[in-house]
Amino acid sequence: MAVEGKTLVAAPGSASRRGRSHRLFRVLGVEGGCAAAVLIAVALAALFGTHLWHGNAYTVDFGSKLQSWSARHPLGTDQFGRDILARLLGGARDTLGGAVLVLALTTGGGLVLGAFAALTGGVLDALISRTLDTLLALPSLVVALALVGVFGPSFRGLLIALALAGVPWYGRVYRSLVLTERANLYVEAALAAGATRRRVFLREIVPNIAGPALVVATVNLGQVILNLAALSFLGLGARPPAAEWGTMINEARPFFQTHPNLVLAPGAAIALTIVSINVLGDALRDLLDPRS
Amino acid sequence: MAGYILRRLAQIVPALLLISIVVFALQTASRIDPAHEIVARQNGGFAPPAAIAAKRHELGLDRPLPVQYVRWLGGIVRFDFGRSYRDGTPVSTLLRQRLPATILLAVAALALTLVVSVPLGVAAALWRRVRLFDVAVRVLSVLGASIPGFALALGLIWLFAARLHWLPAFGGPSLRQLVLPAVALAVPQTGLLVRLTRAEVLDVLGSEFVVVAQAKGLPRRTVALRHLLPNALVPILTVAGLMVANLLAGAFIIEFVFAWNGLGRLAVAAVQDGDMPVVLAYVLFVAATFLLVNLVVDVLYAVVDPRLRVKAPWQ
Fold first, then answer.
1. N or C terminus: fewer CB in 10 A for chain A?
2. How far apart are the CA of A7 and the nearest CA of chain B, in angstroms?
3. B12 has a chain A CB within 8 A of its CB
């Protein structure tokens, strides 16, 4: 009896302990697990990076400019003698934080607009849908470029421009998500029970579309980072001495032919982050939709 | 067929009108006052308030917004996009000067993309059991979607211009200077198209008419060229059309890196300077390009697939 009880307790216990250390990999597969690990590392760098590495990220020190890699400066220094590793860690906050902010704004805007169109219906819905469809004829990067022209080049202006440029696409996605959810019987029941439209939206529909909405946002995070870095690279976003990764590459342009590490470091950081996001997005999609 | 084309053309007009309203709203929302810009340019940076007020009246900026919109639209229809704030050149002249370089770059990049990725995609589908192909396609498509175009461009310049001295990095348009920007533009598209081609060919490979063709004992090459490829190419056509539009509109980053004198570089400089007429003309150009390319793709679709020419009963 005692032996039986022991095995009964021990077996699932050891399995779950073994499972926990590899849970990331078991759920997402090897590639997805690695991608998630990289992203967690990048997120930690964005949050605590400036405390992890005591390099000089922002102050000019011409005595140590354009150095190659060494123990003191693992990735070398730039044309102002600033430590490149420290700038990468500092820039992670601008690049990733900015991209997450853009995603939050677009998701919010798209959700409100899409849900409003879907739940109102009629002429207003048709008008909003047609407008969104037409605006989709414009690539969002070009819209963002034009909006930066309207707001004037600044990091905040760039974030708002990118968020607004994404609204048509998100609005359409969320409109169809809300429409599908709206057709369910429980929504009908809630409406029949006398719940207001706002209550139905917030209490019934939003919790049910949160999952798909999160996947949409994750899959698009890579594209947002690319666009943010691209427009910053054109000098339309974060201003020097900010260490945003695209801005770093822009600043390095006059020197990179002799010192390619100035471009290679931030370029690799962007590429690695985006590869991880794309791989993780694929893994998440496989996980949630086994058919594909 | 003519009726079909006319019907599709008629659908473009409301879309363009709507986009023109949005673009006009952007112009109105801009913090830059056109009258101030023009007066300041003509007086060497000095802009007295009286002169600005007079200019505002002359430009019609003191009239109601709908009136301003109609006047502005009237100009656009006649290809009058106003004058650049920078040096007073008509924007239409600037567009005309820069358009050929952009088209040259887009066509070169598209040709490169198609030539590389369609055969590669077909090969990857036909020899999908060769593991090397499978891995190569996956790596290529993930990297193509993940490496920022501008970082790739700088890498190409470093390797082929600074290190090996094989090709010039900047300037143009000329054939030798075309190579690097075209490659930089083509790589991200190649990954996408290889994956799509592979999926389409695999899809068609499973269909019954291919099985029948093989069962009849037709040679492999005949099956591949006569039965497989034409059917797989139809969806690829759509994506290729979208790519043309993307290459014409999205090339501004690559044009900036390579100092390629196209429309995109013009637009980036205009955004940096707050030269709104040029920016807005660029947006209109992009919109018109996208709508027109979509139209051409639809018409080509109808040519390839006669079923689409018939008006569906529910339309």
1. N
2. 44
3. no
Amino acid type, B261:
N
Q: Cβ of A192: how many Cβ atoms within 10 Å?
A: 9
Higher pLDDT, A59 or A150: A150
Contacts 24+ apart (CB under 8 A), B73-80: B73/B20, B73/B24, B76/B20, B76/B284
What are the pLDDT digits (tens) for B145-195? 778 888 888 888 888 877 777 777 776 556 778 888 898 898 888 888 888
Helices and strands (H and E) in chain A: how many: 11, 0
| Predicted local distance difference test score (pLDDT) of residue A2 | 40
pLDDT tens digits, B268-284: 999 988 888 899 999 99
- Shortest Cα–Cα distance, A250 to chain B (Å): 9
Q: What amino acid occupies position A216?
A: V
Q: How many helices (H) and strands (E) does chain B have?
A: 14, 0
Minimal CA separation from A200 to chain B, in Å? 33
φ/ψ bin of B217: left (φ > 0), alpha (ψ from -120 to 50), beta (otherwise): left
Question: Distance between CA atoms of B240 and B293, rounded to whole angstroms?
Answer: 10
Among A100-109, A110-119, B190-199, B259-268, the least confident range? B190-199
Average pLDDT of chain B, as a whole number? 83
Q: Residue A77's beta-bridge partner residues? A: A83
CB contact under 8 A, A134 and B18: yes
Rounded Cα–Cα distance for residues A48 and A70 (Å): 23
pLDDT exceeds cutoff 60 at B210:
yes
Measure CB to CB from residue B151 to each of A150, A235, A263 and give the nearest one. A263
- The predicted pLDDT at position A7 comes to 39
Of chain A, the percentage scoring pLDDT greater than 70 comes to: 88
State the Cα–Cα distance between residues B55 and A282, nearest whole angstrom: 57
Instruction: Look at A230 and B253 and tell me if their CB atoms are within 8 Å.
Output: yes
State the DSSP code for A55. -
Residue indicated by tokens 């044309």:
A79
The Cβ-side half-sphere exposure at A144, using a 13 Å CA radius, reads 32
Q: Which long-range contacts (CB under 8 A, 24 or more apart) does B222-230 make?
A: B224/B122, B224/B126, B228/B201, B228/B204, B229/B122, B230/B304
pLDDT at A41 over 80: yes
CA distances (Å), origin B287, targets A135, B93, B281: 9, 19, 10
CB atoms B15 and A134 under 8 Å: yes
CB contact at 8 A, B45 and B51? no
DSSP at A77: B
Local confidence band at B217 (pLDDT 50, 70, 90 cut-offs) = confident
State the Cα angle at B76 between A126 and B25, rounded to 5°.
Answer: 50
Q: Count CA atoms closer than 13 A to A22's CA, side-chain side.
A: 9
